Structures are given as structure tokens and as C-alpha cells.
């Protein structure tokens, strides 16, 4: 986690505030060297001070947002490799095509028949914008999914109206 | 491992045989099978003869390897269901607080988590347009200064809470019963904001939009965009919220502004809210129509295919109760006979009239005391005591009854392809001795 941006702005803001304080504390006896530089008005000073504070607050918010974004990104990217999926013909294609949008947890949690997996491919294309999966690759991918992620069905609960 | 959990393994490999072995011909556990089951669980099962056939003991239904845990700053150790989209469930025993702390809120994302809004939160903008006379473009600052600010305890529950109980398993995150929260939300009533926009007679439905990008990163595609009938939007507990438990809403939960639509599927509580459109027809965004957040009117065969054309949108969520002071899998000292129990119960738009707990697989029930909700749409605390007859393995079944007299069923009912609105009673396995 690096904070160079916020540090820079913070330093800038502190310098600005420091200068303001110097101006304000200037004893009346000490005449400015360069008479042509008029001391800023109180209103201008207040505005400058408010601007500096706002800049600091903004920088703090930006840094906090960035740090939070990094933390959330780390949680959302578990750094999976292909071997998180069971060994089998088609694993490489499935890993390559199915992890652009989501991690594999969503696949590994699922247990569907070949027919349902096949339907899901169309759903992913129609509703979620996945590139259409066709021909041999589709067969390869769906076969792999159906083989390794079948319904975890208790035969005792099998429905008599389905076969 | 293979030696340690023979039955568990047998159930995984061949449930029919395991069931036959363990339960015997008529489904009653007996003889050597009882001994085998007892050995597997490390105890005897006092109410074995009442265990319904085909129901796995709750302790065995748990995956042997345990579930992954979320490790994240600002969040408790929730059950991690998926990293991207980030989805995590609150263990039931973590829901003991009357007001759910932010770190214990369950997490459901449909898309990516957006970058935190780095501007002054007061400048976040929300548009109200569509079937209104005066479209509004309001900042969070405007909301706070122009409308009455209220604070309420409100349930927010995923439409798929309890889904894992469906047989056969359905699509969707396999939630137990922990996709529920009851935060103290501060915000303005959506009703007041809609009135300020001057709704036309044709304003009959809402559609909601948030800032979370679609999982694919495609910016033209909302991750999720659902809507509700105007009557729900006009309820005095439906809020445009900007504080949770007195603090700004955490980024993960919709900072700086989200909808809270209590008692209805959580997907209607749009996070990172930036637009509400009023419509003459039901909204058609992602998450509407088909089998999304919809359930059959005419029940379908579990496991069958349907396009959901004749399904209806889920409105109020069904009644549910949880035991929250004893964790599933708790081991209690030998000789423990008296159990002080407590938990939470809620019923969507309705209230909870009663909660009962059974230690004998539903053969007998003990009534608990149920508190009134502190405000409409808050969950309700229940508590009571139970006596156990002996040491051994018990399941505490918790069953809530709503204000219309409807109870939680033993099994998830009205099977639907995406697995919504399952409210089978909760089962907590404990071991005494």
C-alpha cells in the first residue's frame, strides 16, 4: 500500500497552511521587504485555508478509496490456477473460458445434468455476454462440466416423474 | 479419514445403501446400524426411531472438509461462498445480536464491487425519473436536508436464503439460513422522494440502478437492476438509506447510498443506488422475468425445466426462525439437561406469532416466547428453555409461525429452478457428553 499521492498533497497543504500562519502572525513592526506585496485580506485567507483543508480531505478520501479498492480486489481475485478444477479432458478450455468474469467457486458449487449445463451456456451468452460457445469446443466444455459436476443427487430422493 | 467417518463417506458414495444400512427397512435406526451411526457420530442418537427416512442427520449433511472462511478486514469470519462475485454467508450463531453489526452482514454481489466514491459523499447523485411530472436530480446532501430522516431496524434477506435445502439442488448460491440481517438503517422514505417528483397515474412500478459494474466489465450492462410494484415502494419502511448502525454504509454494502426494501428479496435493496425510474409496466432489467426471483403458481416437478413464463415475482419473503445462541455442531458437557435457547424470527411483511423448538425430530414441540418487533419489518427475538432426556446426539429443530398461522415446513417447498423462497425449518445438531 503506497501513499505517495496523499503525502504530496498533504505536504503541499501543510506548507500552504504554514505560510498562512506566517502571514497572520506577522508583527506589525516588521514591514514586509517588498512593499508592493499586499497582505491578503482575511476573507482571502479564510478561503485559501478552506481550500487547503478540502484538498486534504479529498486526498484522504482518494487514498482511502484506493486502499479499500486494493483490499477488495485482493479478496475478489483468489489467484486460482487450472488445478483447482478436477483433472480431465477439457479442463484447460473450461478454465480459460470460464474464469474471465467469475472465479471457479460458482462452477464448483454447481451440480447439473448435461442438459442443464448445456442450457446454462446459452444463458451465459444471452444474459451475461459470454462469447457464444459452439461446435467441438462446446461439446468439450459441456462434457467436462457434466462429468465432473453432476447433480449430487440422493437416489432415494429421485423424483418418480423424472427419469 | 476413511476410518473416521465411515457413514459420512458411505452417504457421499452411495446414500441409498447408507440409508438402508443405517435406517433399516422401515426407516428406523436399529441394531448394529444404530451402533455404527452412533460410532460415526461419537454418541448414541436418543430419538433415532423418530428420524424420518431419507433425512440425513444434520451433522452428517455438513461437508466433511469444512467450508472456506472469508478473511477480510472489517468483516467477521463469514462462510465464503464465492470470491468473484464476492458472496459470503453469516453463520447462524453469529446472528445473535438484535441489531446486526456491519461486520456480520452477509454479502451478496451480482457484479464487481465498484470503486469507492472518492468525492464528498454529500455530492453523490440520485436521479428519479420516468413516469413523474418533475424528474429529480438529487444529491445525498439534498436528500438529508429536504426529507424527513428516519432510523429503523429492518430485515434484509436474500431471496435465495435457505436454498441449500432444496432437493434436487437448484442453481444459485447454496445458502444455509444465514443470508439475513437486521441492521439499524438511517435514511429517507422512498415514498417522500417519489411524492416530491410528482408521480403520474401511470407510475405503477419502480426500476432501480446502482453503480456496480457487470462481472464482465461491460459498462453497457447493469450487474442487476430489479424493481417492485409502487405499493411496496410507498411503504413507510422502504428507505433510501445512507447510514448503517449510525455509520456511513460500508463500501461492500452499498456506500454511500442504497435502497432498503425490507421483507422482500434483498435484490430489491439496490446497493450504490444512483437511479430510480418509475414505470407503467413491470421493470425488465437483469434479474427480472423468466425464473429470476420468481416462483411457480402451479407447483412444478422438482428438477424439471421451466422458462418461468407462468411464475410470479416473489413479494414478501416467507416466515423463518433461527437458533442463535448454540452453534450447529456444539458439544455440551455430559449431564447437560436444561438448555436456555434464544434466536431471531421474521416473516417478510408479516410478523411472527410463535416459535417452537423440537429435540425429537418434530414428534413434540416446546413453545418459546416471542417479543414484539421494535418497529415494523424488524426481526423478533425469541427465547425459552428446553429439557433433554439424556446425553447423546440431538437436533434442535426451530419452527416459526407467521401472523397468518403459516409454519415453516420440514422440507423446502415449491421447488423452482433458481431455488428461491425455501424456508424449511432450521436444524442445529448438538452433542451432549
What topology emerges from the helices and strands here?
The complex is a heterodimer of chains A (163) and B (433).
Chain A: H1 4-25, H2 42-76, H3 91-98, H4 105-108, H5 114-128, H6 135-148
Helix pairs in contact in A: 1-2, 5-6
Chain B: H1 6-13, H2 15-23, H3 31-41, H4 58-61, E1 79-82, E2 87-89, E3 107-108, E4 125-130, E5 136-139, H5 140-146, E6 149-157, E7 180-189, H6 190-196, E8 205-210, H7 230-233, E9 239-244, E10 247-248, E11 258-260, E12 273-279, E13 294-296, E14 311-313, E15 320-323, E16 330-332, E17 338-346, E18 352-358, E19 366-367, E20 369-370, E21 380-387, E22 392-402, E23 426-432
Parallel strand pairs in B: 4-12, 16-23
Antiparallel strand pairs in B: 1-2, 2-3, 4-5, 6-7, 7-9, 8-12, 9-10, 9-11, 13-14, 15-17, 17-21, 18-19, 18-22, 20-21, 22-23
Helix pairs in contact in B: 1-2
Amino acid at each position: 500500500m503506497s501513499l505517495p499521492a496523499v503525502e504530496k498533497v498533504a505536504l503541499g497543504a501543510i506548507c500552504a497552511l504554514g505560510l498562512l500562519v506566517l502571514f497572520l502572525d506577522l508583527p506589525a513592526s516588521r514591514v514586509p521587504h517588498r512593499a508592493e506585496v499586499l497582505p491578503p485580506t482575511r476573507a482571502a485567507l479564510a478561503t485559501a485555508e478552506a481550500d487547503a483543508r478540502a484538498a486534504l480531505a479529498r486526498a484522504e478520501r482518494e487514498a482511502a478509496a484506493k486502499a479499500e479498492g486494493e483490499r477488495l480486489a485482493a479478496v475478489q481475485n483468489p489467484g486460482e490456477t487450472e488445478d483447482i478444477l478436477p483433472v480431465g479432458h477439457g479442463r484447460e478450455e473450461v478454465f480459460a473460458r470460464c474464469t474471465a468474469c467469475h472465479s471457479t467457486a460458482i462452477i464448483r458449487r454447481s451440480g447439473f445434468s448435461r442438459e442443464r449445463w448445456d442450457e446454462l451456456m446459452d444463458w451465459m451468452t444471452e444474459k451475461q455476454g459470454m462469447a457464444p460457445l459452439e461446435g467441438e469446443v462446446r461439446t468439450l466444455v459441456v462434457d467436462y462440466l457434466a462429468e465432473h459436476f453432476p447433480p449430487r443427487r440422493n437416489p432415494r430422493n429421485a423424483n418418480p416423474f423424472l427419469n | 479419514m476413511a476410518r473416521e467417518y465411515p457413514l459420512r463417506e458411505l452417504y457421499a458414495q452411495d446414500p441409498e445403501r447408507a440409508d438402508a444400512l443405517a435406517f433399516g427397512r422401515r426407516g428406523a435406526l436399529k441394531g448394529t446400524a444404530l451402533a455404527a451411526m452412533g460410532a460415526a457420530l461419537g454418541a448414541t442418537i436418543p430419538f433415532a426411531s423418530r428420524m424420518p427416512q431419507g433425512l440425513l442427520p444434520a451433522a452428517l449433511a455438513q461437508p466433511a472438509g469444512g467450508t472456506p472462511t472469508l478473511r477480510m478486514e472489517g468483516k467477521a469470519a463469514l462462510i465464503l461462498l464465492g470470491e468473484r462475485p464476492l458472496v459470503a454467508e453469516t453463520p447462524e450463531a453469529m446472528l445473535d445480536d438484535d441489531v446486526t453489526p456491519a461486520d456480520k452482514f452477509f454479502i451478496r454481489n451480482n457484479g464487481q464491487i465498484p470503486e469507492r466514491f472518492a468525492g464528498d459523499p454529500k455530492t453523490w447523485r440520485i436521479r428519479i425519473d420516468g413516469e413523474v411530472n418533475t424528474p429529480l436530480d438529487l444529491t445525498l446532501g439534498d436528500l438529508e436536508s429536504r426529507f424527513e430522516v428516519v432510523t429503523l431496524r429492518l430485515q434484509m434477506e436474500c431471496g435465495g436464503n435457505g436454498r441449500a435445502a432444496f432437493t434436487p439442488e437448484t442453481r444459485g448460491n447454496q445458502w444455509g439460513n444465514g443470508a439475513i440481517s437486521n441492521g439499524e438503517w438511517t435514511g429517507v422514505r422512498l415514498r417522500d422522494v417519489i411524492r416530491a417528483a410528482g408521480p403520474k397515474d401511470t407510475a405503477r412500478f419502480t426500476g432501480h440502478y446502482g453503480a456496480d459494474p457487470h462481472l464482465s466489465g461491460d459498462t453497457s450492462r447493469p450487474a442487476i437492476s430489479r424493481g417492485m410494484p409502487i405499493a411496496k415502494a410507498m411503504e413507510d419502511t422502504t428507505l433510501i438509506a445512507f447510514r448503517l448502525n449510525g455509520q456511513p454504509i460500508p463500501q461492500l454494502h452499498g456506500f454511500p447510498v442504497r435502497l432498503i426494501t425490507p421483507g422482500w428479496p434483498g435484490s430489491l435493496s439496490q446497493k450504490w443506488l444512483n437511479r430510480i425510474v418509475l414505470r407503467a409496466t413491470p421493470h425488465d432489467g437483469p434479474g427480472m422475468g423468466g425464473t429470476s426471483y420468481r416462483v411457480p403458481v402451479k407447483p412444478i416437478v422438482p428438477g424439471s425445466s421451466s422458462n418461468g413464463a407462468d411464475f410470479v415475482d416473489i413479494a414478501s419473503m416467507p416466515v423463518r426462525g433461527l437458533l442463535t445462541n448454540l452453534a450447529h455442531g456444539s458439544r455440551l458437557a455430559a449431564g447437560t439437561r436444561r438448555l436456555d435457547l434464544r434466536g431471531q424470527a421474521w416473516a417478510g411483511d408479516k410478523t411472527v406469532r410463535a416459535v417452537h423448538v423440537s429435540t425429537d425430530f418434530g414428534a413434540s414441540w416446546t413453545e418459546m416466547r416471542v417479543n414484539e418487533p421494535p418497529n415494523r419489518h424488524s426481526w423478533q427475538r425469541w427465547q425459552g428453555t428446553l429439557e433433554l432426556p439424556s446425553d447423546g446426539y440431538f437436533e434442535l429443530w426451530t419452527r416459526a409461525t407467521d401472523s397468518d398461522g403459516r409454519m415453516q415446513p420440514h422440507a423446502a417447498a415449491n421447488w423452482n429452478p433458481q431455488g428461491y423462497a425455501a424456508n424449511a425449518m432450521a436444524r442445529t445438531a448438538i452433542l451432549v457428553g
